[in-house]
């Protein structure tokens, strides 16, 4: 039996949209308009700091999820709703963890931007801590880690051509593009109250390895982006993978590095533990080293510690850039969401951690 632990709250004023316009449009364009009569109640999920996510609940009992870019942002790049919708539509036949798509709207007259709507997956999405009524013993925690790795490895083994995703990204040369691209993004988003990170960027540029493969990568794979069924029973399974806005074709070890940047473990320093977004610190959870070894066992991509250092630093650096891009909006008054202001301390800590790892590597 599945228990819901994913509450959504009131829609922020700056993120409101014309609910009646969406409801009317869906009745005409949804793949399945069953149960969409009337006006839905709308609530907003607080987890995301990029694209916005809402829950729509109709009087009939049907619930859907709507995704849209922030107000005032054109749907390009990281806010491309059409791309996000296409990726999930094409992955669905070969990767059974994507929500079913309901409709994609390109008519900006409806709410002022593109948006797409998908089915809601029942289950649990864990955040920094487990829900109060859920407990994991050490065996269940370990099993959850193993399941998490199983699904990531399964994604990286998807046949790109069979899925019709050949045009998802440029593929070969991914590592070099990422090092250059994220360095440039940081320089553009840098504010006068954060470090310059130039030494870290120079080290990444000098140490970058060749791509080990080209696969579909999620690029934001973490526990709070998966839906879990049976959490707390000792047999939790992943029923959905969410937030595909950064997915592309690229090096799977870069995907793993990004995932491990979020994998904060029990013996990490307090400043790192303070910014965790998932309960990877609980007793029984695998360490980062064990996760990397487990991934290698599943995929054959062996990564000795000295080689892993590049992927580790890049994952943390990329996370710092994402945090800085979010903070930049707050710093320049582009959002009133106070949560965005908290990313300043995240950037400062990740700067310190990246710099220390580079220095330990002799950089």
> What fraction strand?
5-15%
Mean pLDDT: 94
Outline the low-pLDDT stretches. none
What is the approximate shape?
Answer: globular
The fourth-level CATH homologous superfamily of the largest domain is Aminoglycoside phosphotransferase (APH), C-terminal lobe
| Count of helical stretches | 11
Spatially, the strands of the biggest sheet line up as: 1-2-3-5-4
Number of domains: 2
Order of helices and strands: HEEEHEEHHHEEEEHHHHHH
Q: Helical residue percent?
A: 25-40%
Q: Can you summarize the main beta sheet?
A: 5 strands, antiparallel
Query: How many strands in all?
Result: 9
Keywords: Transferase
InterPro entries: ACAD10-like, ACAD10_11_N, Aminoglycoside_PTrfase, Kinase-like_dom_sf
GO molecular function, one term: transferase activity
Protein name: Phosphotransferase family protein
How is this structure best summarized?
The protein has eleven helices and nine strands. By secondary structure, the chain is of the alpha+beta class. It has two domains: 13-119, Phosphorylase Kinase, domain 1, CATH 3.30.200.20; 138-360, Alpha-Beta Complex (Aminoglycoside 3'-phosphotransferase, Chain: A, domain 2), CATH 3.90.1200.10.
Detail the topology: elements first, then pairings:
Elements: H1 19-29, E1 41-44, E2 52-57, E3 63-68, H2 81-91, E4 101-105, E5 115-119, H3 138-156, H4 174-189, H5 198-207, E6 215-217, E7 226-229, E8 237-241, E9 248-250, H6 252-261, H7 270-273, H8 288-299, H9 305-331, H10 338-341, H11 343-360
Antiparallel strand pairs: 1-2, 2-3, 3-5, 4-5, 6-9, 7-8
Pfam family, one: APH
Keywords: Transferase
Protein name: Phosphotransferase family protein
